[in-house]
Amino acid sequence: MARKLVKKRGKKVGAAPGTLVHVGDKTDTVAQIRVVDYDQEHLRDQRLKDPNACRAFKSGPRVAWINVEGVHEVHTVEALGQGLGLHPLVMEDILNTDQRPKVESYDDYLYIVIKMLQYDPLQHEIRPEQVSLILARHYVLSCQERAGNVFDGVRERLRTGRRIRFLGTDYLAYALLDAIVDNYFALLEQLGERIEALEEELITRPTPATLAQIHHFKREMLLLRKAVWPLREALAKLTRDETSLIAAETRIYLRDVYDHCVHVLDTLETLRDLLAGMLDLYLSSISNRMNEIMKVLTIMATIFIPLTFIAGVYGMNFEHMPELAWPWAYPAVLLLMLGVAAGLLVFFRLRKWI
Amino acid sequence: MARKLVKKRGKKVGAAPGTLVHVGDKTDTVAQIRVVDYDQEHLRDQRLKDPNACRAFKSGPRVAWINVEGVHEVHTVEALGQGLGLHPLVMEDILNTDQRPKVESYDDYLYIVIKMLQYDPLQHEIRPEQVSLILARHYVLSCQERAGNVFDGVRERLRTGRRIRFLGTDYLAYALLDAIVDNYFALLEQLGERIEALEEELITRPTPATLAQIHHFKREMLLLRKAVWPLREALAKLTRDETSLIAAETRIYLRDVYDHCVHVLDTLETLRDLLAGMLDLYLSSISNRMNEIMKVLTIMATIFIPLTFIAGVYGMNFEHMPELAWPWAYPAVLLLMLGVAAGLLVFFRLRKWI
Amino acid sequence: MARKLVKKRGKKVGAAPGTLVHVGDKTDTVAQIRVVDYDQEHLRDQRLKDPNACRAFKSGPRVAWINVEGVHEVHTVEALGQGLGLHPLVMEDILNTDQRPKVESYDDYLYIVIKMLQYDPLQHEIRPEQVSLILARHYVLSCQERAGNVFDGVRERLRTGRRIRFLGTDYLAYALLDAIVDNYFALLEQLGERIEALEEELITRPTPATLAQIHHFKREMLLLRKAVWPLREALAKLTRDETSLIAAETRIYLRDVYDHCVHVLDTLETLRDLLAGMLDLYLSSISNRMNEIMKVLTIMATIFIPLTFIAGVYGMNFEHMPELAWPWAYPAVLLLMLGVAAGLLVFFRLRKWI
Amino acid sequence: MARKLVKKRGKKVGAAPGTLVHVGDKTDTVAQIRVVDYDQEHLRDQRLKDPNACRAFKSGPRVAWINVEGVHEVHTVEALGQGLGLHPLVMEDILNTDQRPKVESYDDYLYIVIKMLQYDPLQHEIRPEQVSLILARHYVLSCQERAGNVFDGVRERLRTGRRIRFLGTDYLAYALLDAIVDNYFALLEQLGERIEALEEELITRPTPATLAQIHHFKREMLLLRKAVWPLREALAKLTRDETSLIAAETRIYLRDVYDHCVHVLDTLETLRDLLAGMLDLYLSSISNRMNEIMKVLTIMATIFIPLTFIAGVYGMNFEHMPELAWPWAYPAVLLLMLGVAAGLLVFFRLRKWI
Amino acid sequence: MARKLVKKRGKKVGAAPGTLVHVGDKTDTVAQIRVVDYDQEHLRDQRLKDPNACRAFKSGPRVAWINVEGVHEVHTVEALGQGLGLHPLVMEDILNTDQRPKVESYDDYLYIVIKMLQYDPLQHEIRPEQVSLILARHYVLSCQERAGNVFDGVRERLRTGRRIRFLGTDYLAYALLDAIVDNYFALLEQLGERIEALEEELITRPTPATLAQIHHFKREMLLLRKAVWPLREALAKLTRDETSLIAAETRIYLRDVYDHCVHVLDTLETLRDLLAGMLDLYLSSISNRMNEIMKVLTIMATIFIPLTFIAGVYGMNFEHMPELAWPWAYPAVLLLMLGVAAGLLVFFRLRKWI
Ligand SMILES: [Mg+2]
Ligand SMILES: [Mg+2]
Ligand SMILES: [Mg+2]
Ligand SMILES: [Mg+2]
Ligand SMILES: [Mg+2]
Ligand SMILES: [Mg+2]
Ligand SMILES: [Mg+2]
Ligand SMILES: [Mg+2]
Ligand SMILES: [Mg+2]
Ligand SMILES: [Mg+2]
Ligand SMILES: [Mg+2]
Ligand SMILES: [Mg+2]
Ligand SMILES: [Mg+2]
Ligand SMILES: [Mg+2]
Ligand SMILES: [Mg+2]
Ligand SMILES: [Mg+2]
Ligand SMILES: [Mg+2]
Ligand SMILES: [Mg+2]
Ligand SMILES: [Mg+2]
Ligand SMILES: [Mg+2]
Ligand SMILES: [Mg+2]
Ligand SMILES: [Mg+2]
Ligand SMILES: [Mg+2]
Ligand SMILES: [Mg+2]
Ligand SMILES: [Mg+2]
Ligand SMILES: [Mg+2]
Ligand SMILES: [Mg+2]
Ligand SMILES: [Mg+2]
Ligand SMILES: [Mg+2]
Ligand SMILES: [Mg+2]
Ligand SMILES: [Mg+2]
């Protein structure tokens, strides 16, 4: 329960727009800036000490990818934003990691927010991380909350690949989005496997813990849906928009990411429906079990209650009870008891209880 | 239960349109009018005794912000409305605090209704307050139901800030809207925290009070949704509309408020779904507990019922019961009883009840 | 249950379009026609004996308001319709009081259907009544099912007001629509109050009658929604439509009615959700109560069942039961019983049942 | 359960488009073709033996109405289709009676599918029948599955009416659609009456049969919705479409049918919601009843269990039980028992169980 | 449970777009390529050993249908794709069998994804298979996962039919789509039959296995909906799109497939609602049965508990119990017992329990 559904942003209330305050998990690490700039022939990969040095890439001759790990350092993001001429609202949103996925057009760049999602197999929890992308003519700025290896594949392809080196910032931004969305499938596989295992458990041996698990996964689905649902609209905007920053050729690739996103949402919806069905099944199986218990109690009690009564009658101490002296009375009463029990058993059998 | 879901407006039924009647909570305080007018160089902050004096600001050379606290004084709102040339229907809506959030275009001004929302941590209740904004070329009129400090940040920025002093009434109106919507996040944080605490309580020690709390928060969610849902459409209209009252530059800021509003609605929807899931969980845990209780009763009753019957049989007073005289009969019956009990325990173990 | 959800219109099946048959509640009263015609200077209020006399108002120099109370008189409606040149389908719909709210454009008039809604505080039932409006250049025809006082305010304003006397038939039609929709708020207030009282009752002392009441109000909500939901679209059409019958100035007033209608629907939706939540709460409180009952039974039965067994054992009549002769046996058995009871009480306490 | 939710069309799988196979209920009757052709002065009503003779009406001088009863005769439909020059897909759809309601434009005719619905009061079941209409310039072809009297009203009006004889095929097609949709109201009346009777029964004396009935009607509603829902869109298309086959004047009449269709769907939705509410009510009343039963059992058992235990104690046969010899012991024990019972009754009263 | 809801595509995460990796069930069979090329006069049907030979058909004079069975052979699909000049993303999607149905336009071809659905009557499971179609000017490429006979009808019509031989690749693609969608009806028939049988079983003799079956079919419905729902939009795009690859005449045929798809979705929705209703019915019938069981227990226990108590009282061993000596005491007590039992029976009868 450490991960909150609603993030704290108390300090921000009432502040001027563009007030730069970090909203998100606190961390002690130092923010890292790494710049890869390349054209078809050359590629340079460097670590940037001074964020102000980013100005060099704002309209450089090559494609520059400026990657920041750690948006908790307000001054770093501020220096980058001022160096690259970003709108104060954009800087504010980069720092506030509680954004919905979205695409916003500014005069000479696009601002894209997307959620990176990691599955924590110990807690069975999804850990979301906000990624902000600035797609400009000459550079792509990507801001992550924490260090991570999800962009390693892109970095590798920049070094060794061909297509990506011949195309512009739009294709680079696509490659980053694709890396994040591809990762959603890995997440869904793990979730799907856990949920199907839970279903198996539910059918063979349901326990109260199964119920808690179902509730837990329904909760994770809420978070997942909140993180992915707005992305669909955002990606659709990218494939449609009339911005000159994205070439027609790249739009085909973005359509593929959009397609993946819709697929993820379909699967998510299916898993949600499956969990809802599992809850129904759990409740029914509780009712079934209660029925079983009640049946056993009712059969036992109903058979013995009249027998015990008969025994009680002949345990009374009245002086004038002529039956008590009859020699065949005892076996006769035992037979009577047997008859009552048999009659009740037949009655239960007719009701299909046994 | 003091706060009603449906406000009384009985007196208004059948009245002519534009009939000025206050609909809302009654109060004894005196309405306050405060006017801040400013340009890049000067700023004047004054209290207005006579509402008719507002005429001076209708087309003054500076930007004027006329703030009214207390719309229960019909004559004050009427004087202001007539001084500023407002449509009778607008005056009517300002007085009627039971409006949906909305934006309406009139010839030379926009009329905006929005709900200010405060969380009462004692009653765990949301206290809504209606704010009406008139955005005209030379002034912004804001009408609140009660005194409050939500606009203090804007007032402070007017005194000390730069950007807000260089821009027009559109930016001022934005700043007021932003202050209100930012406050929603504070509200959601408090609600979210309470609801997650409730979830914790539900899992560890559910009581009937937990159920009442879940119902209470579902109810608050209904009120919240009613207050925020129409705002989305209203703000979308502001960022889209072809009115010349809003500059393109300000639209970017309004898009940010719109974005916040959508975020609030997303979170609200998530909290609603969470509460629905919690209700399901509560019902299931009741069923589980009932199962436990029934199992204990069934086991106890089922084991002792036949034993008590056997004891009853040998408590009968028939004269001819040969077993009674056998020397080993008593321990034999005790062993029989032990056997029956053991058999039933094995049966329950096979059923996995114990 | 006197008011049917589906009205009988059996006679109409298979009839030609425009066949004039009354569908609705039968009544013995005589239909009343009342005509108010006015301009800025004069106003005449008369009762019309002969419906054919309406021809005079079809293109008279003044604005005429022809109000009919009692559409069960087919010949009256027919005479009016022919006198004013109405389409046969319009006459048919006026007589058939089982219409959805709607707006239909004809060549030189608009046909508007709306539901007047009255709350019957004895039966807690909504009584709907259909009102048909014909908005033409020179007259407004309004047809009600029964006599009533909902238009008295409009009549009063015609006599004494100014604005309404300076404007045309479009403003008159607006005033009639407004009078009806304003009345919805009175209805919602009464319903809301009853439902909140029911909620209070549900929380403090739920009975099966509470459940029947919840069901009853859910049913009324269905009827209400059916009567108001289509009105939204109809009013939106009025504020939008390109008909020359409605002046731009009047559209602002119609937008206000539309706004009220949306507000009514919002409140309705909230009340519906509240009722759904109340049903959930009722079901949960039944389950809670069952738990309480079962707990008491289980505790009592479980404590006494083994004690009664022990007493039964020493009530057996075997000759060879050495314990029976021991002097301390009786108090020892009493102590044993006490110990068993105490053990079980500790067990229940550990389970948090007591 | 004779009427299947999914119709068999196995033979058709894999066949070429336009393959003519009848899908629907088999019947032994012979298909009947009846042609009415008319203008303002003349009307001829004849039975057509040879379907090929229909060619004469394809572009005859009068309006011709070709009505077929029995689409199970593939060769008849094929001959008609070829005679009138229909597209193979249209012929295929006429024969396949498992179509959704729809309107399709072809070069010189419109193809309309609609469901005729009959209520079987014995089985409380809806019997759907598919009607196909071809609206061409000079003829209307209507194909029914079985003989029936739903079009008798139209036939009568053709003989005696005026309007219908002066207008073209579009008005004739409208008259046929109107006859079918008018019939839906009769159906809804019968359904609504049965459902309200069921509601009455549910409130006064619910039985498991009530539940089965609710389920049955929910099922009928599914079928009804499937048959009527797509008709709305189809009729909207007819009132909107730019085809020259429908005159502006007729569109007003088609708008009326559309209006009826929307009304039917509204009522259907209301009945569905009512049935859902009835199911909730049924489940709640079961729970209430269970509570009653448990209360009686708990009260009886809880009162007598300790009393029986006390009796058991003094039924033990220990030699040293001094109380047994006390003269007032018996009445004292009886008083003790009375006290225990009274105490428990007070406890139950405090819990509001009795 | 062998068929997973979420397919594994782990290897693909982080790979470059267009990386060719098979996602789907592994198989040992060899991929088969079969080419049918034809014009009105000639038809040739051959097996292609070398996939590179497909280049000959890219712009051949005849219509060519290239059918591949087995997309697990990456190199085969790659060779085909390169030979026909397909976009890398298309090749990637052909290999990744976990796609949503869709239509994508490329410069000179359309890419269509559709699901072939087979019902496994042993497992009562739906087995989906992905089919990719490339519709180009001179060829249609169809890629299936496994060998199968669903296209046999098309092959037969190519050999013997007339229409299909006179028309282009668009009509061929239509024929393939039609064959697949027609098959959905067969599937629905089988599912519908099973579900109606289950409903019958539910009403006559519900068991926990019935519940498991309902859950199973709800799950299959989720899968089915996921496979068919997006197809509607895809087919709508085909009938609408402005591509020159599809002739107006063929669009009429595609509209027919679209119509079938909508029909399938309607039926699916109906079956889903039916299953939801069946679950409600199951839960209610469990509650009803519990009520029955409780009633029997309560009646038996409530009648005998006071009788046994009375017997217990007169089984006490007090010395001073004067009744014990009365001669009529024993029959009087028996009568008392009878009276108590009769009273309770009357009470139960009044409550309508018996
Ligand atoms: Mg922002
Ligand atoms: Mg969000
Ligand atoms: Mg969302
Ligand atoms: Mg995909
Ligand atoms: Mg979907
Ligand atoms: Mg489900
Ligand atoms: Mg208003
Ligand atoms: Mg509102
Ligand atoms: Mg709302
Ligand atoms: Mg935001
Ligand atoms: Mg959501
Ligand atoms: Mg939920
Ligand atoms: Mg009508
Ligand atoms: Mg209606
Ligand atoms: Mg409705
Ligand atoms: Mg309003
Ligand atoms: Mg709602
Ligand atoms: Mg609710
Ligand atoms: Mg068809
Ligand atoms: Mg269909
Ligand atoms: Mg349907
Ligand atoms: Mg109607
Ligand atoms: Mg309902
Ligand atoms: Mg409900
Ligand atoms: Mg792809
Ligand atoms: Mg996909
Ligand atoms: Mg889906
Ligand atoms: Mg079809
Ligand atoms: Mg549907
Ligand atoms: Mg549904
Ligand atoms: Mg249902």
Task: Describe the secondary-structure layout.
5 copies of one chain form a homopentamer.
Chain A: E1 32-38, E2 43-47, E3 63-69, H1 74-84, H2 88-95, E4 102-105, E5 109-120, E6 125-136, E7 139-144, H3 152-160, H4 163-166, H5 169-204, H6 208-240, H7 248-313, H8 329-350
Parallel strand pairs in A: 3-7
Antiparallel strand pairs in A: 1-2, 1-3, 4-5, 5-6, 6-7
Helix pairs in contact in A: 1-2, 5-6, 5-7, 6-7, 7-8
One magnesium ion (MG) binds next to α6 of chain D.
Keywords:
homopentamer, 354 residues, alpha+beta, Beta Polymerase, domain 2, Methane Monooxygenase Hydroxylase, Chain G, domain 1, 2 domains, 8 helices, 7 strands, 15% strand, binds magnesium ion
- Give the count of helical stretches of chain A: 8
Rg of chain A over CA atoms, rounded to whole Å, is: 34 Å
Roughly how much helix do the residues of chain A carry, as a percent range?
40-55%
Strand content of chain A: 5-15%
What is the number of beta strands of chain A? 7
Give the name of the CATH architecture of the largest domain in chain A: 2-Layer Sandwich
Shape of chain A: rod-shaped
The major beta sheet of chain A can be summarized as: 7 strands, mixed
Residue-averaged pLDDT of chain A: 91
Number of domains of chain A: 2
Task: Please write the CATH class name of the largest domain in chain A.
Answer: Alpha Beta
Oligomer type: homopentamer
Reading side by side through the largest sheet of chain A, how are the strands ordered? 2-1-3-7-6-5-4
CATH topology tier name of the largest domain in chain A = Beta Polymerase, domain 2
Ligands (ions, cofactors included): magnesium ion
SS content category of chain A: alpha+beta
Largest interface: C-D, 68 and 68 residues
Low-confidence stretches of chain A: none
Family (chains A, B, C, D, E): Belongs to the CorA metal ion transporter (MIT) (TC 1.A.35) family.
Protein name (chains A, B, C, D, E): Magnesium transport protein CorA
Main location (chains A, B, C, D, E): membrane
InterPro entries (chains A, B, C, D, E): CorA_cytoplasmic_dom (IPR045861), CorA_TM1_TM2 (IPR045863), Mg/Co-transport_prot_CorA (IPR004488), MgTranspt_CorA/ZnTranspt_ZntB (IPR002523)
